[in-house]
Amino acid sequence: KNQVEQSPQSLIILEGKNCTLQCNYTVSPFSNLRWYKQDTGRGPVSLTIMTFSENTKSNGRYTATLDADTKQSSLHITASQLSDSASYICVVSELQGFQKLVFGTGTRLLVSP
Amino acid sequence: ETGVTQTPRHLVMGMTNKKSLKCEQHLGHNAMYWYKQSAKKPLELMFVYNFKEQTENNSVPSRFSPECPNSSHLFLHLHTLQPEDSALYLCASSQDEATQYFGPGTRLLVL
Fold it and tell me: For B33, how many CA atoms within 13 A lie in the half-sphere containing its CB?
């Protein structure tokens, strides 16, 4: 069964610190992997997208990595800000059908002042 | 703003009520989606419309009825819901298989 597992489930860090969120998947065949940020009371917003051949992708203070061999991805947040408090969802797309997306349950991040 | 709007943002309904959720996208996309997001669960795809034609229906109960009158509008008609249907209902749109843009969601509570 295609699955996406994220860890940790939740995380609290101090403002200004760095953190790394993990995503492991079993989706096959693989098309691409996206990280979304979901603020409380809002819909998810795409941060990065990586295909099979890409190892890393940055979007400001967010850097995503992908190891397609081990089926692992990480999202690194540098110099965290209070506005980074949100849920971060890893989404893997299957290489078949129309937009066959498999969603993780997300990591809830709280950045504390 | 993502270019996808949803109304209402919050809805409380009894199990015998009939209500509708509305989604509108201003991005010129050709595909629209309904998702259900429950606490501590992954987003669940409910319906997909591609060029106004429904292409996916992931075994959603018939008490949920989608309607897509054109490529910019999507409705989810609700009737005789159950308390376990309480969740955040998210609408999204995309151009073909590119990144999906999500609306803010409708928080639904079924009493």
Answer: 26
pLDDT tens digits, one per residue of A48-94: 999 988 999 999 999 999 999 999 999 999 999 999 999 999 999 88
Residues of A in contact with B102 (CB under 8 A): 36, 43-45
Q: Tens digit of pLDDT for each residue in B17-38? A: 899 999 999 999 999 999 999 9
Distance CA A35, CA A73 (A): 9
- Upper half-sphere CA count for residue B46 (Cβ side, 13 Å): 26
A9 to A5, A25, A26, A62, B41: CA distances (angstroms): 10, 15, 18, 19, 11
Which of B27, B18, B11 lies closest to B73 in space, CA to CA? B27
Provide CB contacts within 8 A for A76, sequence distance 6+.
A18, A19, A20, A21, A62, A63, A64, A65
The type of residue at B79 is: H
State the CB neighbour count (10 A cutoff) for residue B67. 14
| Distance between CA atoms of residues A88 and A23, nearest Å | 10
B50 touches chain A (CB under 8 A): yes
A26 touches chain B (CB under 8 A): no
